[in-house]
């Protein structure tokens, strides 16, 4: 074999090897872990937005990706085991939705990339070094700008009920960002001349005690602080409606389920944006090089059906501020 022929043959062999490797890579099925404190039924609208966004980027569940869903159903104690299970599956990355889920995932692995979706204070909770330069293996979306939303929620509730002076605040103290949300609510309450009565529920089993206290207190309104399980729990919606208690929720899911009002980040938008992080990481970008982003869309939603059911008339100026009105 001549020298020139040998060179051509080696080049051809190299090209063939490259194409085979490229084809193998294109045919790879990526495993994505999904860890949430929520439950499958509650999470459907948001996970569907996530799946559709992934599909728009070329990732189809069951074809070139497999999503391993793990839900703690409001029980934070289950998160470490669920996170460890995903690590044992050797997933390519973990989408850890809320702060407790992300903290459990980070404790379980320092190497597998982790994407948060609604981490309220990723710097304060120790998930990342900074929003601009996360460092480590965690990045994603943050509600850090949304910490102020509890104050805005109280303000909107006061506008809808100008005469009320006493509001019950339902919180989950086990959720790391709760202190920040409460601080903002307390600042707003002082400016609005409203008295707050803070009630705690660490898990769904503690809701009955909180409900009993609210009935005894007879407040003029209810503010539900953003937290896993509390923000979208149907029992809270039913309790508020059956007791004719005007309630402000952090997520639109609760208003769709019959809650009176909500103000907060557009959850589905956050899940769609999380899909872009998945795409970048699967294509080789390191989490440490992807800045943590904040919410871009906040929504104020009112359910007029519920207002009528509890005998409340929403002032026209408040209705005019709503991004969506359910009639």
Structural commentary:
With 327 residues, the protein is an alpha/beta fold. It has two domains: 28-144 and 267-296, Response regulator (Rossmann fold), CATH 3.40.50.2300; 146-265 and 299-326, Response regulator (Rossmann fold), CATH 3.40.50. Helices cover 43% and strands 19% of the residues. The chain has twelve helices and twelve strands. It has helices spanning 3-26, 40-56, 79-88, 99-108, 149-160, 178-192, 207-217, 234-242, 252-256, 267-282, 304-309, 316-321, and strands at 30-36, 65-71, 93-96, 114-119, 138-142, 166-171, 195-200, 221-224, 247-249, 261-265, 298-303, 324-326. It has a seven-stranded mixed sheet with strand order 7-6-8-9-10-11-12, sandwiched between helices. Strands 2-1-3-4-5 form a five-stranded parallel sheet, sandwiched between helices. Strand 8 (221-224), helix 8 and strand 9 (247-249) form a beta-alpha-beta unit. Helix 3 packs across helix 4 (99-108) and helix 5 runs parallel beside helix 6. It starts with a helix and ends with a strand. Mean pLDDT is 88; it is low at 4-25.
Quick rundown:
With about 325 residues, the protein is of the alpha/beta class.
Mean pLDDT figure? 88
The strand count comes to 12
Largest sheet: number of strands, sense, barrel closure: 7 strands, mixed
> What would you call the structural class?
alpha/beta
């Amino acid at each position: 074999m001549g020298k020139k022929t040998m060179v051509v043959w080696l080049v051809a062999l190299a090209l063939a090897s490259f194409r085979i490797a490229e084809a193998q890579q294109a045919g790879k099925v990526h495993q994505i872990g999904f860890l949430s404190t929520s439950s499958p039924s509650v999470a459907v609208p948001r996970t569907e937005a996530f799946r559709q966004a992934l599909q728009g980027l070329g990732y189809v569940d069951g074809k070139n990706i497999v999503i391993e869903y793990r839900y703690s159903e409001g029980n934070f104690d289950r998160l470490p085991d669920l996170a460890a299970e995903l690590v044992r599956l050797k997933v390519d990355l973990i989408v850890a939705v809320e702060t407790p889920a992300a903290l459990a995932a980070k404790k379980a692995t320092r190497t597998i990339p982790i994407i948060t979706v609604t981490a309220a204070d990723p710097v304060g909770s120790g998930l990342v070094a900074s929003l601009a330069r996360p460092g480590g293996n965690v990045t994603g979306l943050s509600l850090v700008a949304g910490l102020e939303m509890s104050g805005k929620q109280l303000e909107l509730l006061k506008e809808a009920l100008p005469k009320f002076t006493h509001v019950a605040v339902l919180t989950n103290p086990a959720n790391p960002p709760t202190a920040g949300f409460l601080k903002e609510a307390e600042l707003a309450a002082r400016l609005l001349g409203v008295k707050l009565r803070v009630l705690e529920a660490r898990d769904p089993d503690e809701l009955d005690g909180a409900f009993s206290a609210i009935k005894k207190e007879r407040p003029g309104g209810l503010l539900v602080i953003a937290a896993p399980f509390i923000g979208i729990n149907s029992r809270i919606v039913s309790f508020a409606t059956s007791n004719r208690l005007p309630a402000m929720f952090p997520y639109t899911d609760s208003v769709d389920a019959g809650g009176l009002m909500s103000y907060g980040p557009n959850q589905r938008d956050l899940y769609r944006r999380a899909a872009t992080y998945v795409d970048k990481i699967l294509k080789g970008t390191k989490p440490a090089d992807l800045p943590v982003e904040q919410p871009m869309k906040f929504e104020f939603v009112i359910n007029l059906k519920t207002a009528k059911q509890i005998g409340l008339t929403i002032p026209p100026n408040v209705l005019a501020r709503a991004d969506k009105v359910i009639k």
